[in-house]
Amino acid sequence: MDQVEEVFREERGRLLAALARRFGDLDLAEEVTSEAIEAALVRWPVDGVPPNPGGWLMTTARRKAVDRLRRDQVYAAKLAVLQVEADRADPVPSADGALADERLELFFTCAHPALAAEDRGALTLRCLAGLSTPEVARAFLVPTATMAKRIVRAKTKIRGARIPFRVPGPDELPERLPGVLQVIYSVFTEGYAASSGPYLQRLDLAEEAIRLARILHRLLPAEREVTGLLALMLLVHARRDARSNPAGGLVLLEDQDRSRWDREMIAEGSELVVAALTGGPAGPYAVQAAIAALHDEARDFASTDWSQIVALYDVLIAIDPSPVVALNRAAAVAMRDGAEAGLALLDELSDEPRLRIYHPYALARADLLHRLNRLPEATTAYKQAFELAGSEPERAHVRDRLDDCRRAVQDSSA
């Protein structure tokens, strides 16, 4: 069964993208993809996984799509055209001999400017990364019902406006690329810190995001923000093995065994950072990658160059202001100038709606309050962080900090 699940993880996004491109209907593609996987769950445990599982799933899904269209008279006229699409030859190799990845076409479709900005990443995470609607909602810090409406709205827009499933031309690329990068990074973020479930990380998602970024980098080697995004993800993902203890619990950056960091990945990421920062003003991903490089290149936590990190956050907040960037800058200021300075900056962000449901904000405040020995306030903040934390390891970490704070309160009153 593990082999079957691995195949599904690998093939689902590719299958959905290919079917969406061939039939021009995301809802139909999702439905027949699910039906093909359900058929495989019945057949494969009995017959074994076929030699070409992706081909088996594609053939099954395509037949189900054609059967469904034949039964629907509304689509009768469309079927003849779609059948030609479904039976066409394999994709043509690109100039470097590699086959184009149809998932990238779907990424660009989902990032089309005709879609509302708030809908683009949500749709792609749902369709290509296979996240559930609640997971997508947590990734974007909105209620699940709101996210469900966004996804339906985006699909309806693609269908109604007949948005093509294709990679845009050079003239369209500057407008479309930032949306694609945001989507890839959102997939990575969910993989780096799972929004729910028993595991701290979803390595399959993180590695899928890196794989897609590598494809995009090969296709667009001169785009420095593509380079910056790939560098950022590599430099962060290099710490994956040290971020959890043997029991699956969260290990903070300051406590990580840096000998477990992937030095080859760090070297690759650091080289890409140089390229991303060369040739003009840096973009947001390049600056974030430079920050990640400073963390990775520090011999230990104590020798981290916090002054340089704060300076880079100053650059980042000037070119890409957001509450989350401001939160991260405040945390860096706390390391450079002390807990009181960091807490003052966090308190200035207390009215930001996005941060009210963002557990790292409540946790950062709690930790700084704890460091300042403002224990009753820290206890309240830890409780808020616990209520907002998504994955079980994150909740366990906050619970441990809350217990430490409560013991400190008891000791101080003894």
TrEMBL record:
<keyword id="KW-0805">Transcription regulation</keyword>
<dbReference type="InterPro" id="IPR013325">
    <property type="entry name" value="RNA_pol_sigma_r2"/>
</dbReference>
<feature type="domain" description="RNA polymerase sigma-70 region 2">
    <location>
        <begin position="8"/>
        <end position="73"/>
    </location>
</feature>
<dbReference type="InterPro" id="IPR046531">
    <property type="entry name" value="DUF6596"/>
</dbReference>
<dbReference type="Pfam" id="PF20239">
    <property type="entry name" value="DUF6596"/>
</dbReference>
<dbReference type="InterPro" id="IPR013324">
    <property type="entry name" value="RNA_pol_sigma_r3/r4-like"/>
</dbReference>
<keyword id="KW-0731">Sigma factor</keyword>
<feature type="domain" description="DUF6596">
    <location>
        <begin position="176"/>
        <end position="276"/>
    </location>
</feature>
<dbReference type="InterPro" id="IPR013249">
    <property type="entry name" value="RNA_pol_sigma70_r4_t2"/>
</dbReference>
<dbReference type="Pfam" id="PF04542">
    <property type="entry name" value="Sigma70_r2"/>
</dbReference>
<dbReference type="InterPro" id="IPR036388">
    <property type="entry name" value="WH-like_DNA-bd_sf"/>
</dbReference>
<dbReference type="Pfam" id="PF08281">
    <property type="entry name" value="Sigma70_r4_2"/>
</dbReference>
<dbReference type="GO" id="GO:0016987">
    <property type="term" value="F:sigma factor activity"/>
</dbReference>
<dbReference type="GO" id="GO:0003677">
    <property type="term" value="F:DNA binding"/>
</dbReference>
<dbReference type="InterPro" id="IPR007627">
    <property type="entry name" value="RNA_pol_sigma70_r2"/>
</dbReference>
<protein>
    <submittedName>
        <fullName>RNA polymerase sigma factor</fullName>
    </submittedName>
</protein>
<keyword id="KW-0804">Transcription</keyword>
<feature type="domain" description="RNA polymerase sigma factor 70 region 4 type 2">
    <location>
        <begin position="110"/>
        <end position="158"/>
    </location>
</feature>
<comment type="similarity">
    <text>Belongs to the sigma-70 factor family. ECF subfamily.</text>
</comment>
<dbReference type="GO" id="GO:0006352">
    <property type="term" value="P:DNA-templated transcription initiation"/>
</dbReference>
